[in-house]
Amino acid sequence: MKITVLGCGRWGSFISWYLSGLGYEVAEWGTEGHPSFDVLKNTGRNEYITLNEKILLTSDLAEAISFGETVIISISAQGLRSFLKRVTAYPVGDKVFVLCMKGLEKDTGKRLSEVAAESGISKDKIAVWVGPGHIQAFLKGLPNCMVIDSENKELVRSLCDGFRSKLIRFYYGDDLIGNEIGAAAKNVMGIAAGMLDGGGYSTLKGPLMSRGAREVSRLIKAMGGNELSAYGLCHLGDYETTLFSEYSHNRRFGEDFVKKIPFTKLAEGVETARALKLLGEKYNVDMPITNAVCAILFEQKDPMSEFLKVFSRSTRKEFL
Predict the structure, then answer these.
(1) Contact present, 187 and 212 (Cβ < 8 Å)
(2) 28: closest CA among 79, 64, 82, 73?
């Protein structure tokens, strides 16, 4: 299998490195003039990895797309729809697309696989790659488990079996809705965790994990997915890397936001919070933690006051 990776940020470059290490022929695409591409082009490495010399690094999108039978996309979730307009201008009908990003379209609440399908890619050729893991840990040889899901179950098995290694064990996904919603929502919970850290209320991260997973499970069920997915690798299983890890961009964003420290890296949970709130309203699901994050980010509400209100609501059964 020849594989093309579109995107050369931290995850794109890691995926190229990982799959090349498994013996695949890999091409990686990035935008000429963008720092993440230029540093790879000029030095063959970035702050995380050194690219295998066999990897074709290109800024020519046509060349990149024609190279691979499987196309992995790792860019900002909010840029996916406009980017796919460029991608689908080329012949892609026989390509498999794997979306390796976690988010929801902010203005519509659409899952990324829905965005891809609406962009003209066949549903049975779309897969998502989600689950816990930080590049820094993988590069130390520390293993983790991840999930690949699709409406095409044969594709799920093919990709999981083809991509697994001692470093990453892949599980067969069987709930595309739940896995996409859960993977996106964990970044919102990561921001909430960071805000609690920044405000000196880290003790509330336990209730955050419990209540957050339940909140997301209700939404998944209302959308037609399996509510138990919220307790799997896509969401609760990703909490360690998102709510506690020093490498989590979303947790760090939340902490810095409370401390009024500028944050310059991508935190997908910011725009996902907006989309998640939209979905809660659409499906009439109570989303207190999501709503609190939105109130803090977009309405300038006091962070600790909002979270203390969430965790001091009237007494109720734990899993109501």
Answers:
(1) no
(2) 64
Q: Contact, 6 vs 29, CB < 8 A?
A: yes
Nearest Cα to Cα of residue 239 among 178, 173, 192, 172? 192
The model carries a pTM of 0.95
Instruction: Encode pLDDT of 89-107 as tens digits.
Output: 999 999 999 999 999 999 9
Q: What's the rounded Cα separation, in Å, for the pair 144 and 138?
A: 8
111 DSSP 8-state letter: B
Q: Are 41 and 57 within 8 A, CB to CB? A: yes
Task: Indicate the Cα dihedral angle 245, 247, 273, 319, nearest 10°.
Answer: -10
Q: Residue length, the chain?
A: 320
User: What does the alpha-carbon distance between residue 189 and residue 15 come to, in Å, rounded to a whole number?
Assistant: 25
**Residue whose tokens read 């964990």:** 186
Q: How confident is the model at residue 265 (pLDDT cuts 50, 70, 90)?
A: confident
Q: Which residue has the tokens 């840990």?
A: 137
- The contacts of residue 49 (CB under 8 Å, 6+ apart) are 13, 14, 17, 135, 139
Distance CA 253, CA 255 (A): 5
